[in-house]
Amino acid sequence: MKFPFAFVKPKESNGRREEGLPRSDEVLDILKSLKRIQEETRSITTEVFSFEAVRKKVKEGTKIVLLSDVHIGSIFTDYSVLSDVIEFILTNDDVRVIINGDLIDNFTKKLAFIGVEEQIVSPSTQREIFVGLLESLAPKIIAFNVGNHEEFSDLDYIRLYKRQHPNVTFFLNRGKLELEVGERVWNVALIHKSRYNSTINPVHTGMRELQLKYPDADVIIMGHTHENAIARVPYCGRMVYLVKVPALKFLDPFSYRFFDPHNYEPEVPVLEVYGDRIKVHSNYR
């Protein structure tokens, strides 16, 4: 955007207005332009993402597969497990899915060259796969929580998909679901990237998020650090599940450098919901 003037460093003027400084009416024009840009940007963001709690009705006994950090496009992703999981979701009527970010690797050179070198297809092809996969899964998706790897490029591909599938819920890094089963509502917090990570205790993230941001949560689902952990902890008179969803990308130098995942377990956890209870299973099989 081109502003109607160029800012220059003011000179000593002894109270006089120097040439190049904006007039009061010009300043007002700029503020109006900034407000217009802000409104346009916000309208695009709110068109795609939900920033309030979203309620979803699910049937008694529904199984919700929890996927996170799949990193489609990486040479280190376990595509065999991914294929089995997708088939399991599509062929079972009582199964739904929550995707908690980083479905694609989407590394570009400006970010991390080592990540670029680990990819077997280009980021643009990965985004096409992203859209194609979500087309197939659309009726099954409870929510998609966008991770940092989706954000490595502009989000036009997600915006276009959302326009074709307005009923698919998208969150941006974090969000809250209200799963309604009969008369019962279960509160589920989704967090991709959190500031409360610990390499010593993987569920520390969830405990701090529970204490500081989601005190009414019944389940907190986390990702980003590629670790695998499930804990059921007492909090304010009830039991809360803290679920760290493991990645399907493993043995790669990037993960070892930043997340230190010593053991890879090709597990995909499942949340099973009823009107009187919830369960978390360590693997979908």
The CATH topology of the largest domain is given as Purple Acid Phosphatase, chain A, domain 2
Largest sheet: 6 strands, mixed
Poorly predicted residue ranges? 1-9
Number of alpha- plus pi-helical segments: 7
What is the CATH superfamily label of the largest domain?
A: Metallo-dependent phosphatases
Strand fraction band? Answer: 15-25%
Query: CA-to-CA gap between the ends?
Result: 54 Å
Number of strands: 12
Helix content: 25-40%
| CA-based gyration radius | 23 Å
Q: Which strand order does the major sheet show?
A: 1-6-7-8-10-9
Structural shape: globular
Q: Tell me the structural class.
A: alpha/beta
Report the top-level CATH class of the largest domain. Answer: Alpha Beta
Mean pLDDT value: 88
